[in-house]
Amino acid sequence: MPDFKMLLNPSANHVYRQAAPALAAAELEITAPFASQVDLASIGGAPALSFSADDPDELVLAAQSLMLACFEEKAGWLRPLALPELNVMDDDLVTIPKYPGKTNEAFTRLLLHLTLSQISRPGPLEVLDPLAGRGTTLLAAWQIGHHSYGVDADSKAFDAFAGYLKTYLRTKRIKHSAQVSPVRRDGRSIGRRLDAEARLDEATRDHPANPGGPRLKMTVFTGDTRDSAALFGRKRFDAIVTDAPYGIVHGAEAHRRQGHQPGGRDRSPAALLAEAIPVWRSQLKSGGALGISWNTYTLDRSELLRMLAAAGLHGLDAGPWRSFEHRVDSSIVRDLVVAVAD
Ligand SMILES: C[S@@+](CC[C@H](N)C(=O)[O-])C[C@H]1O[C@@H](n2cnc3c(N)ncnc32)[C@H](O)[C@@H]1O
Predict the structure, then answer these.
(1) For atom 27 of ligand 1, which residue has the closest CA?
(2) Domain residue extents for the chain
(3) Alpha carbons 280 and 225: distance in angstroms, whole number
(4) Cα dist from 90 to 13, 52, 134, 142, whole Å
(5) Helix extents (H) in the chain
(6) Are 253 and 336 in contact (CB under 8 A)?
(7) Which fold has domain 92-341?
């Protein structure tokens, strides 16, 4: 059986890079059933994976979130594979924004890929991040040709995101519309919404990631995630992909809440997720999947799996699905779960 090597992308930050090879191996085992003997390796000292495969699916290899390049190995020589380009928008869409609290973009792509791998419907898919922050998931979904939707309680994050998206689309000369408007209920304003559409270049029309012609839609609301179903009404999503609050009490917040030290931990994300998961479940289409990452210091994996099960979601928890836990810093050990509708 032919042997392959996958060179991993060195762009992940230092802490994340330590964990990246093990995460990439688990991602490959889950999403590439044709790959056997997946193992950690190196190419000239750079982190890589090795695997064997008879007939590798190039679209699946190209979708590996932590891959830089892939090679077939023969008699000690590496022959590069010409993999298809899956991105319908440039990488800088996701990498330009830099701010405290941003979810690592390589990790976001990993969570997105694992979640979408559990959906059999062809794209473009509709992806909701109900804790969207400044939009890393929304942008990563657009980059690979899916529509994206979001909610976040932080109106400053919403403003920063809307401003960034408009500037980016204008600067890149991408045909688009994007407007922010008030949301009213019973005659009073309850928040704002961003509605955007990017009409991408003709050249991407026959793209494998987006064969229907890329007109990417996006809607983002300010508001509480527990009101997400009320905000989106009857709309249903193929995937929900989200990075939950880490429960870290930052400086000013710590002073307001007696007894908390800056950098200390707060278990409240568990309470939020217990209330939000049934709401999110109601927004999933049948055959849909939910992928969530969280700080294990605030919530045990088993407790999260129980919350998901109570809402009618089956958390995938066997073999490589249990290999994603990794340290982010002294107060965050992050893990992820993907769950499918029962
Ligand atoms: C870990 S951050 C997500 C960061 C995001 N992935 C990014 O890269 O910008 C979690 C987000 O949850 C939001 N959040 C916390 N509680 C919320 C609630 N009850 N409703 C809506 N958003 C909430 C916070 O404002 C924060 O933006």
Answers:
(1) 133
(2) 3-80, 92-341
(3) 9
(4) 20, 31, 18, 10
(5) 14-31, 58-62, 92-95, 105-116, 136-143, 155-171, 228-232, 251-256, 268-282, 301-310
(6) no
(7) Rossmann fold (3.40.50)
Distance 226 CA to ligand 1 centre (A): 12
Surface-to-core class of residue 57, CB atoms within 10 Å of its CB (0-12 exposed, 13-18 middle, 19+ buried): middle
Query: Is the Cβ atom of 103 under 6 angstroms away from ligand 1?
Result: yes
Q: Would you call 21 helix, strand, or coil by DSSP?
A: helix
Q: Which pair of tokens denotes residue 323?
A: 């290999």
Nearest CA to ligand 1 atom 10: 245
Residue 260 gets which letter from DSSP?
P
Give per-residue pLDDT as tens, 236-256.
999 999 999 998 765 444 444
342, exposed or middle or buried, with CB in 10 Å at 0-12, 13-18, 19+?
exposed
Distances (CA, A) of 340 to 8, 23, 239: 29, 21, 9
Whose alpha carbon is nearest atom 2 of ligand 1?
245
pLDDT digits (tens, 9 = 90+) for 273-311: 999 999 999 999 999 999 999 999 999 999 999 999 999
Distance (Å) of CA 303 to CA 53, 185, 273, 278: 37, 36, 11, 15
Give tens-digit pLDDT for 262-274.
444 455 899 999 9
Structure tokens at 166: 């408009």
Is residue 1 within 8 A of residue 52, CB to CB? The reply is yes
